[in-house]
Amino acid sequence: MEQKKRETISSLFEIAATLERKWTNDWNTHNTLGFSKTHILLLDFLANEGPKRPSAIAEHLQVTSGGVTVLTTKLLKSGFIEKNQQTVDRRASQIVITEKGQELLEQSRQQIETLVNNMFGMLSYEELATLRTIFTKCLTPKP
User: Fold this and answer.
1) Which residues, 6 or more positions from 46, have their beta carbon under 8 angstroms from its beta carbon?
2) pTM assigned to the model
3) How many whole angstroms separate alpha carbon 6 and alpha carbon 11?
4) What's the N-to-C CA distance of the chain in angstroms?
5) Any residues with CB less than 8 A from the CB of 45 and at least 6 apart, and which?
6) Alpha carbon of 14 to those of 10, 112, 142: distances in Å?
7) Can you tell me whether residue 23 is helix, strand or coil?
8) Residue range 73-127, pLDDT digits in tens
9) Is the dihedral of CA 41, 43, 44, 49 positive or negative?
10) Using the 8-state DSSP alphabet, how is residue 123 labeled?
11) Stretch 134-142: mean pLDDT, rounded?
12) What are residue 85's DSSP bridge partners?
């Protein structure tokens, strides 16, 4: 890899890390709900996709099965999700969002809107579309 490209990639890595810290700090500053971004993403996934097995949640959120256990424990105790055993295979369970979880998700939308506006509000539609294309390309595995 040529030196100029290597330096630019290194700089992008630093910028991405700084943005992640900034966005996390912004979330923590504006978060009045007491749940992490990942908790809200989990609720959103269940609201949009319906009941899911813990393995599907882990894959979607890109966390370990232990991570799913940690996330779901707090949501279960608070009544925002339920864990249902399947009748066919009692070893398999599915996680489902409750009505209370739907309400929390709705409350979080204002916070998310504020955060997203702070993150991307200064960009034009064209810049956002380009950024989305670039981010998607970065997530696509190399052949």
Assistant:
1) 52, 57, 81, 95, 96, 97, 101
2) 0.75
3) 9
4) 18
5) 52, 57, 60, 61
6) 6, 24, 22
7) helix
8) 999 999 999 998 766 666 678 999 999 999 999 999 888 888 889 889 999 999 9
9) positive
10) S
11) 86
12) 93
Q: How many CB atoms lie within 10 A of CB 61?
A: 15
Does the pLDDT at position 70 exceed 70?
yes
27-40 tens-digit pLDDT: 888 888 888 889 99
The backbone torsions φ and ψ at residue 52, rounded to the nearest 5 degrees and listed phi first, read -140, 150
Bin 81: left if φ > 0, else alpha if -120 < ψ < 50, else beta: beta
CB < 8 Å & 24+ apart, contacts of 79-87: 80/43, 80/104, 81/42, 81/43, 81/46, 84/51
Structural domains of the chain, ranges and CATH numbers in brackets: 31-139 (1.10.10.10)
The DSSP result for 61-114, as a single string, is HT--HHHHHHHHHHHHHTTSEEEEE-SS-TT-EEEEE-HHHHHHHHHHHHHHHH
H or E element that contains 12: helix 3-30
SS3 56: helix
> Average model confidence (pLDDT) for the chain?
90
